[in-house]
Structure to design on (165 residues):
């Protein structure tokens, strides 16, 4: 029995580290593509880059996310920047919404191995133009432009966790 197991192990072709990394990268690429096609994923924020201030802020332990489930988008993101107007009596900060998306566009750039996912969110007080660039390894950048605030960008990673129903 022991000789059979040893012979079986020796018969398997050894896989180099380079081949293993390439295979893992292909698997990750397929996972990311599937998440984007299903429109069911969570963008987990690691860093925030406000337009003003020129400083990248690490927020990877604070649980900031944008969840996309088909046409519904739920965001809980920090905001650092200048607001040109604010709602009277509002104590809400950050970027928070749970709304359906409109003006959705998805395009894949095979040469640069990235997908651009653009959509708009409108609520009663603000319009959010969102542009997410997702790379084949799952890393992503989210840029949001507002009607009444300075734009902001977020860096992070997408995952398959979706909105609880």
């Amino acid at each position: 029995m022991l000789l059979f197991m040893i012979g079986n192990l020796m018969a398997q072709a050894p896989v180099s580290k380079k081949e293993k990394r390439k295979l893992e990268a292909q698997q990750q690429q397929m996972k990311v593509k599937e998440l984007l096609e299903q429109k069911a994923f969570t963008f987990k924020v690691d860093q925030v880059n406000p337009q003003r201030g020129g400083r990248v802020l690490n927020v990877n332990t604070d649980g900031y996310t944008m969840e996309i489930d088909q046409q519904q988008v739920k965001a809980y993101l920090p905001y650092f920047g200048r607001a040109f107007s604010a709602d009277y009596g509002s104590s809400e900060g950050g970027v928070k919404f749970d709304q359906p998306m409109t003006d959705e566009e998805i395009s894949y750039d095979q040469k640069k191995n990235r997908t651009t996912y653009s959509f708009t969110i409108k609520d009663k007080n603000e319009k959010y133009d969102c542009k997410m660039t997702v790379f084949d390894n799952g890393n992503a950048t989210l840029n949001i432009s507002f009607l009444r605030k300075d734009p902001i960008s977020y860096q992070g990673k997408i995952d398959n966790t979706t909105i609880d129903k």
Q: What stands out?
A: The two ends are 52 Å apart (CA to CA). Residues 1 and 7 are 10 Å apart (CA to CA).
